[in-house]
Each structure stands twice: as structure tokens, then as C-alpha cells.
Amino acid sequence: MPEQPYEPEGAIAGTGMGGAMDLGASEAVTLEKTPGGPDGTGPAEKPRSLWSDAWRDLRRNPVFILSALVILFLVFISLWPGAITSGSPLTCDLAKAQQGSGPGAPFGYNGQGCNVYTRTVYGARTSVTVGVLATLGVAVLGSVLGGLAGFFGRSWDSLLSRTTDIFFAIPVVLGGLVLLSVVTSNTVWPVIGFMVLLGWPQISRIARGSVITAKQNDYVQAARALGASNSRLLLRHIAPNAVAPVIVVATIALGTYIALEATLSYLGVGLKPPSVSWGIDISAASPYIRNAPHALLWPSGALAITVLAFIMLGDAVRDALDPKLR
Amino acid sequence: MGRYVVRRLLQMIPVFIGATLLIFLMVNVMGDPIAGLCGERQCDPATAAQLKKEFGLDKPVWQQYLTYMGNVFTGDFGTAFNGQKVTELMATAFPVTIRLTLVAILFEIVIGITLGVVTGLRRGSPEDTGVLLLTLVVISVPTFVTGLLLQLLLGVKWGWIKPSVSPEATFGELILPGLVLASVSLAYVTRLTRTSIAENKRSDYVRTAVAKGLPRHRVVTRHLLRNSLIPVVTFIGTDVGALMGGAIVTERIFNIHGVGYQLYQGILRQNTQTVVGFVTVLVLVFLLANLIVDLLYAVLDPRIRYA
Amino acid sequence: MRGARHARWAAGAAAVALVATGCGGGGGSGGGDSGAVLSASWGDPQNPLEPANTNEVQGGKVLDMVFRGLKRYNPQTGAAEDMLAEKIDTTDSQNFTITVKDGWTFSNGEKVTAKSFVDAWNYGASLKNNQKNAYFFGYIDGYDKVHPDSGKQTADTLSGLKVTGDRTFTVKLSQKFSTFPDTLGYVAFAPLPQAFFSDHAGWLSKPVGNGPYTIQSYTKGSQMELRTWADYPGEDKADNGGVTLKVYTDNNTAYTDLLAGNLDLVDDVPAAQLKNVKNDLGDRYLNTPAGIIQTLAFPFYDPQWNKPDSDKVRKGLSMAINRKQITDTIFQKTRTPATDWTSPVLGKDGGFQDGLCGDGCDYNPTEAKKLIKEGGGLPGGQVKISYNADTGSHQQWVDAVCNSINNALGNTKACVGNPIGTFADFRNQITERKMSGPFRAGWQMDYPLIQNFLQPLYYTNASSNDGKWSNKQFDQLVNQANAESDTGKAVQTFQKAEEVVRDNMAAIPLWYQNGSAGYSQRLSNVKLNPFSVPVYNEIKVG
Known about the structure:
The complex is a heterotrimer. By secondary structure, chain A is mostly helical. Chain A has a domain of 184 residues: MetI-like fold (Orthogonal Bundle), CATH 1.10.3720. Chain A has twelve helices and no strands. In chain A, helix 2 packs parallel to helix 12 and helix 6 crosses helix 8. The longest helix of chain A is centred in the middle third of the chain and has 37 residues. Chain A is elongated. Chain B is mostly helical. Helix content of chain B is 74%, strand content 0%. Chain B contains twelve helices and no strands. The mean pLDDT of chain B is 84. In chain C, helix 13 crosses helix 14, helix 16 packs antiparallel against helix 17 and helix 17 runs antiparallel to helix 18. Chains in contact: A-B, A-C, B-C. At the A-B interface, helix 2, helix 6, helix 7, helix 10 and helix 12 of A face helix 1, helix 5, helix 6, helix 7 and helix 9 of B.
């Protein structure tokens, strides 16, 4: 909402999938008390302050290590799914439909007789791709727009605030149904594009909030007084200090995007075959929940673990970056 | 205070127009709805042309939008393809969804805040870790999986509840759907409250209150909770709109004939009038909920005054 | 030529099931209670519930309970039998004199007369009323004036219809059509009371007809309460007290409700549950042949699919589909592999010919591979089978068909399903000729005649000829068959036309669909008619 009456919570607002991000926002925006010291013009000292402390914390945090390992593993199987599987996820034999686990198929077969294990492994690539690219898109678009609005203020700010309100007002699943129902492409791009389109306002609010906070810091004022240009102010002084909340929220959001992809598939507007994704498999298996629960549970489990890993990672990063909780 | 409200209301106008225009354009992108009305055959061209004319679909989009908004301001939300007034659809759908949303919010408040307070006060305890883990699991499993599983287990296997909701949609029937709908938000509320409580627990005013010798429950309820609830209230407030419009999945699983169902049907049939009408109302709900939340700040935090 | 009749089955039919809770509390059953009400699942009708405006199963279901026409299709055999018609006379297959039986009234007391029919038909045909089934009246003389393809209509009534007495009227067709009387069982030909015209809005909110049930209340999008009409003059009086139709969005939910004892009858069991049906319901499960055939149509407007040798590719694809395995596994034998382009419910005499398709419908991977190669390979190296993803369980079988083709051709990317988000968009792409590969084409008969399985689908420019297939020889044979006054000969000629369809593989026949229904212990004598709709009036409760 514009005219934030209470700045620290000001950046919060959201709809369905924004939940995670809101959560991050409220907690993340408190990062303003970055110990900056007199280093306003000395970027060389910066790594020692917030980031290095955070990194030291993280290295000792078992939650962080665990989730980072899970994510590394996911990245690995996304890049080389063939390393731990044999056969193609698209090879399905109806004769084996709904069978339980067997040789070469530890997770059994789904309703079409496809190997659930193979498909789950291959599905990681699509799901992680969707999550990572959507998050990148949202983070870049959101922080650029939000950052500029926060920095320049005035009418830019009002315009952006109104625009984000407009996007927030439209329920995400609804927007997905409308926009994606006409899509004929069977690539991941429409789904990613939709997520970026409806997701950026969340990041932009956070970016705006943290830029406004950072802008008021003494060292920024000092740099301005020294005659630093706008772009130098933004890039050298404000951005490094305002980016932390964005990273935190984006990490958590990544998990929700992966889950959203599954929901879209369930509503029939998600990714299309021959893409192999957890969302496609979960929604295809959901009617068979009574006969072949394994076909539903394995991809669901993989999805849950992935989302969990990203949220926990985001949590850990936030805790590490938050000086208050030290 | 009054001036603040007026200013906020004025700011809603561009947002309202923008949001309705956005959804209007989005629905328009979906293309020609008439083709779907004739079943597995081609509509005969004469009838199709006439239907288009009747629904105003032969006009340019901007003109359609202006006509539509003009009608909306006179209370005419148009007619769905099955010949029913959209306002009639709203009259049957909104009460159901409002009840569902109430149930969901009740769960968020009662369970979410309770768990949040308990875990926030005992940060690091086994209960805390357990609840934290549980909320993470709830967040990471898609709603439709949770919904289908609970429906199968509670509704069919154990027979505790009816698996679907009758057209009357009484509060009793909406408990499970409400819980499913609330589940993800509930997890957020828990986590949000927990963090907020944990942070404020160390604040000066709480320390002062404890030092004054106030009883513990008084410190928690009067001082700690009141201040910690601000982000939670914000979240729940903004969640109202999301819950009402985002119930598409839940309403589908439990066969609830509410807003989500009407929207889903409207989208499948590319019924611009229904979709835009319902979204228009949802946008209004969202904007008002946000305003109320901001006004609530003043109640919860005496430091905030609106000019 | 406006030969096309249609009924859209898939979108609606799949979204439904029957619920029967003891309406009003669930108590009070005790040995065939003729006053007891059952509740049945339903899908929200897409169009207003006017007879000439209802073109899908869900609306048709209600109209079938509320209306009786001149003819009625026997719930078991599908044969067209006289209902309100006392007699329908013709000497030349073009001019018909119809006499309406005495003693019939609408449930509001108004008499059913010849005028009730003529007014209703005129209303249905007139362009200004936007009736989507108007084309049903296309054979009647003067239709082009009342419903021109473009421009304004120049007449309000059909010149071919004349009321000649209180109970008689004449129909003049624009061409010979020997089986015209048999089409009169279709709901578009139902009579309408004066109230329909004088208070249209009132009628729509609570339709009044002349059938065994009356509508007690109707909450659109949610449920409809039908009650037995005590003074119903017909012989097929309802054996129960009424039916409550409840709208379900997802037929899985409806089936779940049935299991939970929350409902009595599901009239379309979702494919995924078929495996459980025996276990869940025992013998309270029906699986009856219905006049529904599922095919894959091709975009003949796409030059890639209309090359001289394309028929070989189509035939090859057909032979790459293991119909038996798919119907056994995905549909648990509730579909029967198709061997012609009609339906077994027509019977041998009606034109159904088992095995007409020949080896073209047999699964033969080697031959399939060979034929496709001979035909120049798959256009673009890949076939995309389009279907609408919003309703029905189409995804399951399309995926299975694709897997079968992929396995037969030894190429995991030879075939891929192409879900289209909404039915409306699916139809749009078909209408605008945007299909680039085969697409789902489901056909539910409007009336049990072989003509209805061929002409609307394969005649040049017929309205359900979605692939725009065109073949002079076929058209000629159909014209010849329609003009034939001897039914047996007409059927034979239609079969010859069907052979033309086969030789060109104009569409790949997949399987004949059965109607399926499950019901609770409260119900007995549950049947499905050849249109896969439950025969509600014969259901006994308690």
C-alpha cells in the first residue's frame, strides 16, 4: 500500500503465492541497520561487514548445509539426469500401468506405464528451470523497477505503487488460468513469463522499501554531498546494501514458483507434454490416488523436498543476514 | 484520519480501473467465446454473428471496456452465456465463498497465531523445531495434493466427513475445505507470528513491563502480542482477497459452488462478463481489506497517527 | 446441405455423475417408495434451457425429463417410437402430415396441440432467437428465409409448416428425406407452451413442459429439483417421487461422494476410478453400449496432411494404435475398439458393420511403420494430437495413444499430446482451421440412424466436418441414400459411403464408448439409454 504508515512492515502485502515473500519481506526489511561505519566511500571494507559475517554464520548452520546439499544434488540431476537413471522418461508401456516397484523401476509405474523413478529424476530439470528462471526474472524486473521507484520517489514512486497494487489485486491462480489457457507452445517460457508478469510486484515492493531505507543512510547522503552521480549512488552505494532482502525473498519465492507450476498443471494450464515435470506427473497421477498412490507420492515428495530446501535456504540466509537475531 | 481515508479512497480509483482493465484485456486475449457454445460443431455463421453482436463482442476492445464499466456503475454486470444475470451468480456465489473465507481466516487466527506465540516464546525448543518443520512441509506440498489426500482419507476411507459440500454450504461442511484453503497461509501466519514475537520479546518495552512485575500473561497479551500482531494483521488482511479469489482449487476439489467455481467456469467458457464481474468485486474487496488493515495499525500501535 | 446434427458429449458428459442423497434428510425409505426423491449429479448447462438451444448432454438430460416429443427413442433399443404422434403420413418422403395424440397437456394445464409444435419449431428456426440448434429445422421448406447464412431474415415463420387442424399439421421439406420422422425424437422438436412466448424470462427460470417431471426449483449453477408430475398423461410415468440434479465440477468428486454414501448414482464414472468400480460397487454398476464413437480427425486444409499419399500415413497411424490395450487398461473395458465409423447400438439392420475397417484398425506396428514411410513420413516429423484439457479425461487416452504410436514407431517423440486449455478455444482453433495435426473428435448420436454418424461428420462442409474432408463420391452416395425411401436400401447405400470413408481413412476410429453408471443400494432398475443418459423415470428408490 502506498503512504506506508509504518515503514518496516510497509513492504508487506501479497496474494496467494506471495505469502512466502511477504513473510520474508517483513523480516528482511529490518536489515536496514547494516553496520556501515564510515565506509561510505570505501567498498573495499564492505565484504567484512554484513556478507562475511553472514557467510561465517551460514557455514556453521546445519540447516543451511543440508538445504544447500539438497539443492546441489538437484542441480546435478538437472544437468545430468542420465547419471542416475537409464532409459528415457518418455518410454512408457501401458502393459505396466500402475504397477508397483520392480527391477529398474524402484518407484513403480504410473497410469500410463511410465517409469516413475525416471520421470521424477528427469522432472527435476524442468521444475528447477522454471523455479530458477522465474525467480531470476522476477528478481531482476522487480528490483530494477522497485529500486528506481524507491530512489527517484515522487511520481515514479506513485506510478509504481499503483501498478503493483493493480497486479496484487488479481489472484495469481486466476491470472494463470486466463493467460495460460490460450498458450499453445509446449516450452517452459509461457509459464515462466506468466510468473514473472504476476510476480515482479512482490519483489519490487521489497526493493523499493530497502532502497528507501538505504537512501537515508549517512554514507549515501555523504556520497551525494560529494557529488556522486545518481547511477553511481544507486549502483555503488545503495544496491549492495539493499539487495540482501531481495535475495532472501527470492530464494523463498523460488520454492513457491515450483509449487505453483504443479497447481497450474492440475488446472490444465501448466506445462505441456513432452515436457517432463513434477507438476505434470502430480496432476496426471492425482485421479489415480487410490490405485497407484506411489505415482502421486514420489513426484509430490520430490517437489516438497525441493521447495523445502529452497525455503530453508532462504530462512537460513535471512537469519544470517539479520543482525538483530545475532 | 478522515482526510487520510479520503485520500486512500481516491487512490483506489486508478488501481480499480487499472485492475479491471487488465483482467478485461486478459480475458479478451483468450479469444472468441462463441465457438465453444455450439458443442462439437461449427456455429452457423448467422447465429454466431448475431450472438457476437448481442454480447457486444463485435466492437473494439476499448469500446467494450467502456461500455462494460459504464454498465457496472449502474449496477449492471451483464449476462452470462447461459442467460443468467452475473449479479444473480454473485448473489449465490459470494455468500458461500465468504463463509469459506471466514472459516479459513478463523483457522489462520486461532491455530496460526497460537502456534506462532507458543513457538515464538520458546524459540529453539523441540516444540518450536517441530512446528517449524510442520509449517515448512505444509507450505511445500501443493494445496491440491493436500486437499485430495484429506478428502480421500477423511471423506471416504474413514468416513468422518462428507467428501463434498452441498449447495447450502453450511459452516460445518466447510471446516475441511476451509482448513485446506487456509493451510498454506496458516503456516505463514505461524512463522510470521513466531518471528515477530521472538523479536519483540527482547524489546525494551517488554523488558520494562517484566521489570514492573506485571504477570506474564499480561505481558504477553497486552504488550508483546499487541505489537507483534502488526505484520500478522497485514498478512491476514491482504490474504482475504487472495483467499476469496484463490479458492479455485479448493472449491473444485470439494465441489463448492462459490466464487472460485464461477470464475473457473467463466474462464473455461471464456465468459468475459462473469470473469470480469467477479474479479471487479474481488479487486474492491482487496482494496478495502488493505485500507482496513492500514487503519488497524493505528489501533494496534498507538505511535501511528494518520493525518 | 445442412445435414449435420450433433451433440456434444465429451465436455459435458464427463463432468457428471449422479448423486442421490435421501433428499430431505435421507430417511423414509422402505420398499419401492414411489414418492421418494433421488438426487443425481449434473453439469451446469452451457446455454439457456430452451429445447432448440440445448446442444449438450447436461441440458439435454433435463429436457428429456421435462419434455416429450412426437417420437421417443426406446430407452433399450433406441428405436424411434410414437409418443405424442398419433401418425405421421407421407407418400413422397418430402411432404408429411402429422397428427398429434389427444389428451396431452403441459404441466400448467395447457393443451398440447399442433400449434404447440409449429410455434416451437418456428421459434427454433428463426435467426433472431439465437437458437443454436436452428439447423435441425434446415430441411424444412423456407428455412433459408427464416435463417439465412448472412443478412437479415426475410420471414418469421417456416413456409413449410402449416397448422391444418387442432391436432394436425403438415411439414414440407426442401428435399426428400425418408427418415425424417425418426429424427423427431430429438429434443429440439419438442412442443412449447404459450407461456414460453408470453413470459420468456419467467419460463427460463423455471421451464414448463409436458414430460413426466416438472421443475420445482432451479438454482442455476448449483442444483435443480424435479418432481414427478402427478397428472402426467403419458404411459412412462415416473416410478419415483422426483430427481434432484446437483452440479458437480469434477466427476471424481461425484464418484467420491457416491462412495461416501453421500450419493446414489454416478452416470459417468471417471476413467481413473474404473479399476475400483467392481470393488466399490459390486453389481451396482452399469456399463451399457451407447451411441458414442471417439475418432481422430485430420486437418485436410493443411497441405501437409492432404498429399496424395497422406491416406497411407493416416492408415499407418491408425495401425500404430493398440486399441485393445488402451481400452482394457485406461478404460477398463468400458470402451470397445472400433472397427467401423458408426456404433453397435445401431444394430446390424441399422447399419453397424463389425469389422468394416478391416486391417486398418488392427494393431500392427511393422505395417504401420512401413505405411507411414511409404506415405512420406509424419508431417514435420511429429504428430501432435490436440484435445481440450478442461473437461473429460482426454489427457489419459491421448497420452496412451501417443505412447502406443511412439512404441510402434520406435521413436519417443513421434507423437505428443497437445492439450488446449478450454473447450471454447479448442473449438475456435478448429473453426479457424488452425489445427496442424490430428485432433480429438467425439461424436454422440442425436438419433440412432447411420445417417447421423456419417453425414454430419464427413459430408462436404457439414457443420461437424471439423477436418474439412471432402469427397465427391461420398457426398453422392449420401444424397442417394437420403432420397431412398426403402430403409434397408438407404442403409446399404450409407454403408457404401462409409466404405469411402474407410478407403481414405478420413478419420481414425478409436473406440465405441459405453455409458457407465454406478449407484447406491437405495436404487434399483437403473438403466442407461443409448444416449448414455440414465432413464430417470424408471428408477425405483428404496
